[in-house]
């Protein structure tokens, strides 16, 4: 885990090391059975220890289950090997509605919101208690930042009004518990969700290439937020399939628009060409005249 986390820094020059690597990490620690990822398939849960949202509960030993011990040991290894190089260690984690969806399927959860709203709310409350433990663990491990992935919060699944009513309180609770910078990532076209994303206390939001940086800045100014805008270099198209020259063009455009933190728009696909990731770093260096 430590070798994989550090590979982005060692091989292509990205200035961070993130772990763990899939959205089933939390569900597995809750007792779900997981089919792990390979180059062609995303990790997926194959069995959950509960059948309905009304049954959801967090195990008492949540942060000691499944792959958590490996994460703890890997983080210690990264500190030992890279602290003197000042490379940030970033803890990845899933958000409450995403964890619930991994356990029971997001389609069923969306139906339950309409028919059994308070049962869903109680399940999210239980999950959030576990995620608070996870944030405290990341704090204690001296990680430098957290990225919380909430792909099930996309407006294609959760209307902004429902997000505000149902999810915002839990996200506000999570951000209050973090002693280190914490960034929220939601995949895809989040234009309709930007205001919600910027009002939950996150230090930054990570936007996909579906969102124009200038528009995100306009929303930020309108609501008076100070949230950093991070992203938004295309992973599924540009970094995965285009040439280094096109990568540099997209990076330069994002920097010219004033993106605060240059990032891929989502997790980098495993088979993305190494030269394309290097081109992203090179374009940043050229833009700021970094030698």
Can you tag this structure with a few keywords?
globular, 291 residues, 12 helices, 48% helix, 13% strand, two-stranded antiparallel sheet, seven-stranded parallel beta sheet, alpha/beta
Summarize the structure.
By secondary structure, this protein is of the alpha/beta class. The protein is 48% helix and 13% strand.
Written as H for each helix and E for each strand, in order along the chain, the element string is HEHEEHEHHHEHEHEHEHHEH
Low-confidence stretches: none
How helical, in percent, are the residues?
40-55%
Major β-sheet strand ordering: 1-4-5-6-7-8-9
- For the secondary structure, the number of strands is 9
Structural class by helix and strand composition: alpha/beta
User: Count the helices. How many?
Assistant: 12
- Using the alpha-carbon principal axes, give the shape: globular
Radius of gyration: 19 Å
Which percent band covers the strand fraction? 5-15%
Distance between the termini: 31 Å
Task: Report the major sheet.
Answer: 7 strands, parallel
Mean pLDDT: 96
């Amino acid at each position: 885990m430590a070798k994989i986390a550090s590979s982005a820094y060692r091989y292509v020059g990205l200035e961070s090391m993130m772990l763990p690597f899939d959205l089933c990490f939390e569900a597995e620690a809750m007792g779900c059975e997981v089919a792990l990822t390979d180059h062609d398939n995303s990790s997926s849960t194959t069995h959950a220890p509960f059948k309905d949202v009304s049954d959801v509960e967090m195990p008492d030993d949540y942060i000691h289950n499944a792959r958590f011990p490996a994460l703890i040991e890997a983080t210690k290894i990264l500190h030992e090997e890279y602290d003197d190089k000042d490379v940030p260690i970033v803890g990845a984690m899933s958000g409450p509605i995403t964890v619930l969806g991994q356990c029971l399927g997001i389609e069923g959860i969306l139906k339950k919101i309409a028919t059994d709203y308070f049962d869903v709310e109680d399940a999210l409350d239980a999950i959030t208690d576990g995620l608070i433990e996870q944030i405290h663990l990341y704090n204690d491990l001296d990680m430098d930042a957290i990225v919380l992935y909430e792909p099930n919060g996309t407006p294609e699944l959760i209307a902004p009004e429902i997000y505000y009513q149902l999810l915002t309180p839990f996200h506000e609770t999570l951000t209050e518990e973090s002693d280190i910078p914490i960034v929220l990532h939601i995949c895809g076209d989040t234009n309709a969700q930007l205001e919600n994303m910027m009002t939950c206390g996150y230090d930054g939001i990570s936007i996909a290439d579906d969102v124009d940086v200038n528009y995100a800045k306009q929303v930020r100014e309108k609501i008076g937020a100070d949230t950093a805008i991070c992203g938004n270099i295309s992973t599924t198209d540009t970094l995965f399939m285009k040439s280094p020259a096109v990568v540099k063009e997209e990076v330069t455009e994002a920097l010219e628009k004033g993106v605060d933190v240059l990032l891929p728009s989502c997790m980098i696909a495993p088979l993305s060409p190494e030269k394309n990731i290097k081109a992203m770093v090179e374009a940043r260096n050229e833009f700021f005249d970094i030698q």
